[in-house]
Amino acid sequence: xxxxxxxxxxxxxxxxxxxxxxxxxxxxxxxxxxxxxxxxxxxxxxxxxxxxxxxxxxxxxxxxxxxxxxxxxxxxxxxxxxxxxxxxxxxxxxxxxxxxxxxxxxxxxxxxxxxxxxxxxxxxxxxxxxxxxxxxxxxxxxxxxxxxxxxxxxxxxxxxxxxxxxxxxxxxxxxxxxxxxxxxxxxxxxxxxxxxxxxxxxxxxxxxxxxxxxxxxxxxxxxxxxxxxxxxxxxxxxxxxxxxxxxxxxxxxxxxxxxxxxxxxxxxxxxxxxxxxxxxxxxxxxxxxxxxxxxxxxxxxxxxxxxx
Length: 308
What we know:
Elements: H1 2-32, E1 34-37, E2 41-47, E3 50-56, E4 59-62, E5 68-74, E6 78-87, E7 93-104, H2 109-115, H3 120-137, H4 142-147, H5 149-164, E8 169-180, H6 183-232, H7 236-246, E9 262-264, H8 266-279, E10 291-293, H9 294-307
Antiparallel strand pairs: 1-4, 2-3, 2-5, 6-7, 7-8, 9-10
Helix pairs in contact: 3-5, 7-8
């Protein structure tokens, strides 16, 4: 009787174990049958190593456990910084840093995974940047690389787009972060700028001196014209009046004379001034006013009465 009970008990235990195993298998298979594609990604389905042409979008999806694998490709904007070394048209060594923002098109996820693999940045993007920078840099001199930086950056971007767009990679932003040159070239550029500044200063000084000289000439011409006009306005009467205005009223001293009073003949002064003005000689010292002794006048008057 006990043997029968043991057999039944063992049979039930075996069934329980089997059921647990089956349940675990179902759970494992069930979990493997679902996959979740993250936001900003696409899922590339690989069945026994073969890449499917269709891709999975964001969210929860079913797949065949142990048979299908889903590889997620990042389709968000990604950034790559690449250091490049190249030579300019005038054979100057140029070291530049390029920053690129790019993204993989959703429709190209399967192709880029199948043909390139998940490490497409180091395989496609970085080498393409290096090649484009070298090709465009070689067309310009070192000085042009500085002065025409925006135009050169646009050319690099266009050339890079032609190379990577065929892989399903789109350029969002292309920036030249730095253009660096050798120390020798930097010193030469600094010396050139200093020379240009000195030349500009010398030119400005020369222009200033020229303007000052022209101002001096103009001032002298104006003064000469004013003097000429003033000379034309001078008349003998004006000269006589000026002479009288400046006379201090002091009579000239007569040597050997007595203390007799002196008389001044104003008419003779004016006549003398008119004669001087008529001759045009205004620089000669003014003549002393003619004087006559009062005593002499009295003697002359006495002689005239005796004669009568």
